[in-house]
């Protein structure tokens, strides 16, 4: 891959460098920084603000990893810089925000058409009440509190309350089946489960008799329908239990918390086996939050406002929607449960966030809707819009290369394109992040053309959230950015193109997988490097390019190693009608590909319909077809569409670096991939092994002799 330079790349970048390890005792013998008076909320992340803040010493530990819930680990601390920051607990993180901005809005959710709010003082009080109630219900230290449901203040209050009470906060994907919920609850020795509504409660009732540690269930939305099961509580009943637990009892639990022990479990998606419980310590969480805030200059231009709609059981949402706002004393506003069915735009317009993060598919859906609206514009309006988009695209590309914006930039961006930002509710947004799955160049360029450049990030549960981030002045489209300060990285076993396994090290690297020594030793090598399983290259300026997953690498019958994602991205670029492309060919003589077409999604069920989207219909018309549905194309074997797709595949093949990387056969599937269909995971990642099983017969026909 061609190396590109950035004039603003920090000069101290070092790949794979690391500071000498310093013992926990030495760190805490240092003199703490002096407090600064009258510090605003915008400065909360920059300093040790309070000289009277208790420094919590870590528990004794000999190893940097463990698989036991109640074990401590040796902190990966350096002697200076970012790696030497004083460790803190999650409790200290929230208490600091309360001291800085007690009356600032912390949480806000719309219920019955009205916004209901908690300021930081009320937020803190609610967390303490939840912690006391968990103790009353029998929560034991280092046992799980599973939380199952859509994002809500009660979700986060339960999460933090579990940590305050000495338990383990455990997010469970709202889309999980009863058996998947059972696995997580059993693996985490959950004493209590918090569920959103009656629908989620029913899942737990189906498996409760196989959960020996489970003592109670709390439902945080609505009344409990039908006959009340024993030890099931409404949210109000649950919170009322706190009056039976004293402050001293809670404080005793808090006093036992240390930075180097586990406070939360993040369960992997389990696409290749049972989910693994990623153990994250207080220090993992709080250090990563501080690092992220410093990297994006959070809070420096005033209080930050974020919208919560990503699954809170995922580390990205926990960092960006729980800990980033707390770190800068910012405000978190909750989207409606049907956010991904279209209401997210309504919430964005009301809230006008300063920071926004979404998976690629969300941005793709916005792009598709914007393109559909553009098609309905008048000739003059469309001409002006096209001109403005051309100027904005060129300007943003120039910025990446350290060049001046083109003539007309101000008129195009402020007078024309700013209307789009306002319509999307992103007119105040400083940064729009994208991550959790690969994003196509088409999507990146489109958003540059409307002057909403997307900031790519790379992270994973095992590194407590972000490892790399793109920010204005230090970004290149197609790269997920540069490493955050204090986060080390290297590429192991490089090939001739510089591609190899992406490896990480630092204070953000996880403690280990709960009760799973084999997988932990597989992920963490003897030198402390986390092996991500991602294939990447790092250019001379430290920009990271993720090119695939090791487990997704196809090894053909001829022994050729093929990364499928770049091929799939090229196919989608050449064929605007294609929604998903999945390349196949492991142990086969040649590559083949499953294609799905862009269709309208049912807003109520999130299931793909048979009706083609506006972009797909336009593509059909451009090649002489009147098709309006997928079934129409398949039933008639529409010659114009089939020919056009083959020509697009041929164009993609012409860009391949070897004959082995060319797709020789392909087929269109009847339905697009989706979460309800089982082909996509909760963060919209493609479940390749699942898709291979689902369409085995069709795949076999590619290779029938």
Give the end-to-end Cα distance, rounded to a whole number of Å.
37 Å
Query: What helical percentage do the residues reach?
Result: 25-40%
Oligomeric state of this protein: single chain
Q: Tell me how many strands there are.
A: 28
Task: Please tell me how large the radius of gyration is.
Answer: 26 Å
- Main structural class: alpha/beta
Unreliable parts: 1-42, 44-52
- Rounded mean pLDDT is 87
Tertiary shape:
globular
Strand order of the largest sheet: 7-6-5-3-4-8-9-19
Largest sheet: 8 strands, mixed
Beta-strand content estimate: 15-25%
Tally of individual helices = 22
Question: How is the topology of this model organized?
Answer:
Blueprint (H helix, E strand, L loop, with lengths): L23 H5 L61 H11 L4 E7 L2 E6 H17 L7 E5 L4 H12 L3 E5 L5 H10 L4 E4 L2 H10 L8 E4 L12 E3 H6 L6 H9 L6 E6 L9 E5 H15 L8 E4 L6 H13 L3 E4 L9 H8 L3 E4 L1 H16 L3 H22 L8 H16 L6 E4 L6 H9 L4 E7 L4 E5 L12 E2 L4 E5 L7 E6 L6 E2 L3 H7 L6 E9 L5 E6 L4 E2 L5 E2 L1 H11 L3 E7 L6 E7 L1 E3 L6 E5 L1 H9 L7 H7 L2 H16 L8 E6 L19 H7 L1 H7 L3
């Amino acid at each position: 891959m061609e190396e590109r330079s950035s004039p603003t790349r920090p000069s101290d970048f070092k790949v794979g460098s690391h500071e000498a390890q310093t013992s926990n005792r030495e760190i805490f013998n240092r003199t703490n920084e002096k407090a600064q008076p009258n510090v605003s909320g915008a400065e909360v992340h920059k300093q040790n603000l309070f000289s009277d803040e208790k420094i919590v010493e870590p528990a004794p530990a000999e190893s940097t990893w463990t698989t036991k819930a109640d074990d401590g680990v040796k902190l990966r601390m350096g002697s200076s810089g970012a790696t030497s920051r004083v460790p803190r607990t999650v409790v200290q993180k929230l208490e600091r925000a309360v001291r800085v901005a007690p009356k600032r809005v912390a949480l806000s959710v719309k219920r019955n058409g009205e916004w209901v709010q908690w300021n930081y003082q009320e937020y803190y009080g609610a967390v303490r009440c939840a912690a006391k109630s968990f103790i009353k219900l029998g929560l034991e230290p280092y046992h799980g509190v599973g939380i199952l449901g859509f994002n809500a203040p009660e979700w986060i209050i339960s999460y933090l309350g579990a940590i305050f009470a000495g338990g383990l906060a455990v997010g469970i994907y709202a889309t999980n089946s009863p058996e998947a919920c059972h696995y997580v609850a059993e693996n985490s020795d959950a004493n209590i489960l918090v569920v959103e509504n009656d629908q989620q409660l029913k899942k737990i009732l189906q498996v409760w008799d196989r959960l020996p540690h489970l003592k109670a269930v709390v439902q945080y939305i609505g009344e409990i329908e039908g006959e009340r099961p024993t030890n099931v509580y409404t949210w109000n009943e649950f919170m009322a239990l706190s009056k039976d637990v004293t402050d001293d009892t809670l404080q005793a639990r808090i006093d036992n918390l240390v930075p180097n022990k586990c406070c939360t479990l993040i369960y992997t998606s389990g696409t290749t086996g049972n989910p693994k419980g990623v153990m994250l310590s207080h220090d993992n969480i709080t250090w990563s939050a501080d690092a992220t805030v410093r990297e994006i200059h959070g809070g420096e231009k005033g209080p930050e406002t974020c919208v919560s709609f990503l699954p809170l059981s995922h580390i990205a949402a926990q960092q960006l929607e729980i800990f980033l706002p707390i770190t800068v004393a910012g405000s978190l506003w909750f989207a409606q449960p049907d956010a991904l069915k279209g209401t997210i735009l309504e919430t964005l317009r009301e809230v006008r966030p300063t920071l926004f993060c979404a998976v690629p598919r969300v941005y793709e859906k916005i792009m598709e809707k914007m393109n559909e609206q553009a098609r309905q514009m008048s000739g003059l309006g469309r001409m002006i819009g096209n001109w403005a988009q051309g100027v904005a695209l060129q300007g943003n590309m120039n910025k990446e290369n350290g060049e001046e914006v083109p003539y007309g930039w101000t008129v195009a961006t402020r007078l024309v394109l700013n209307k789009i930002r306002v319509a999307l509710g992103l007119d105040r947004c400083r940064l729009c992040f994208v991550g959790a799955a690969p994003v196509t160049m088409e999507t990146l360029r489109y958003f540059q053309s409307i002057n909403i450049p997307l900031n790519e990030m790379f992270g994973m549960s095992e590194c407590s959230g972000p490892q790399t981030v793109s920010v204005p002045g230090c970004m290149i489209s197609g790269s997920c950015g540069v490493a955050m300060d204090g986060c080390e990285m290297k590429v192991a076993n490089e090939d001739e193109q510089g591609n190899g396994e992406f490896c990480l090290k630092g204070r953000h690297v996880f403690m280990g997988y709960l009760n799973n020594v084999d997988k932990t030793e597989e992920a963490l090598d003897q030198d402390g490097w986390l092996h991500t399983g991602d294939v990447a290259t790092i250019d001379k300026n430290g920009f990271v390019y993720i090119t695939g997953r090791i487990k997704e690498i196809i090894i053909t019958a001829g022994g050729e190693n093929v990364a499928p994602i770049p091929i799939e991205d090229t196919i989608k670029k050449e064929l605007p009608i294609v929604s998903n492309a999945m390349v196949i060919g492991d142990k086969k003589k040649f590559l083949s590909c499953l294609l799905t077409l862009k269709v309208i999604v049912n807003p109520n069920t999130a299931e793909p319909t048979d009706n083609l989207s506006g972009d797909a219909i336009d593509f059909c018309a451009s090649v002489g077809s009147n098709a309006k549905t997928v079934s129409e194309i398949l039933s008639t074997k529409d010659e114009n569409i089939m020919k056009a797709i083959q020509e697009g595949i041929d164009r993609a093949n012409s860009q391949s670096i070897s004959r082995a990387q060319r797709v020789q056969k392909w087929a269109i599937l009847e339905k697009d991939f989706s979460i309800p269909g089982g082909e996509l995971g909760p963060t919209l990642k493609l479940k390749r092994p699942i898709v291979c099983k689902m369409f085995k017969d069709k795949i076999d026909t590619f290779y029938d002799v």
